[in-house]
Specification:
alpha/beta; Rossmann fold; eight-stranded mixed sheet; 8 strands
Length: 279
Amino acid sequence: MPTVQTNEIETYYVERGEGPPIIFVHAALVDHSMWTPQMDALSDEYTTIAYDLRGHGRTGGSAVESYSAELFADDLDAFITALDIDRPVVCGHSLGGTVAQVYAARYPDRIAGLVLADTFTAETTDWRDRLSLRFLNAQIPLVRLFGLERTQRVGVWIQERFNKDAGGEYGTIERLQAEMPPIPFDEFEKIVRAITGFPKSTVDLGSISAPTLVMYGENTVGYVERQSKKMAAEIPDSSLTVVPGGGHASNLDNPRFYSDAIDEFLSDRVYSDVVGTAA
């Protein structure tokens, strides 16, 4: 089982392929396996690396009292340093996208490119965006009472009352969660508060200098769509792509389009002098 010491934790990771490096940072409450379709598609031409964030999967929890995007970004920096990875592309989805933003803003010269998918910024001035985060925070006591699986199903049901396709292929998420080590409640709470506390962070999107691809699912919630457009407008060298038929987990809802979009971004804007387009 490949692990590496990052700060005070043992971080589990998987690595496939050879070529320029891509590090995948997963969404909340799943693990590295959410990236299997992208690793399958891209490992012929790239070194693809996916790891389990603190509190998730085979990395597991820690004694730290609270989590934040900054803490996760510190872990990512320790991970890159420990594996001696030179200027990777960092691809973050949802919670992973907040981690990737912090890292890219802090260390603009340490990455070759950035992919931010189905995520949001630290600036939530729209009342609808703030309400979305409060709704997520409200799930903490519900999970304590009813469990994660039941609470998530209710949350997806509510989302689909407003957009019937927002949940995407939710059964895939349930399968991934069933196959990974369970997340204890105290870790769940720290993870959720890291997400809802992200607006307390200071991330200067204008300081991100790496070529950036922003993506969101066609059927995602309005909060993510608004925030994705904001990122694309404020990050200097960025482009915006909508994943057809995708909900919040657009990399699983339409994996071929999502993987092809990353491949095109890499071959055209990041590694054009190194690799060709993947087959």
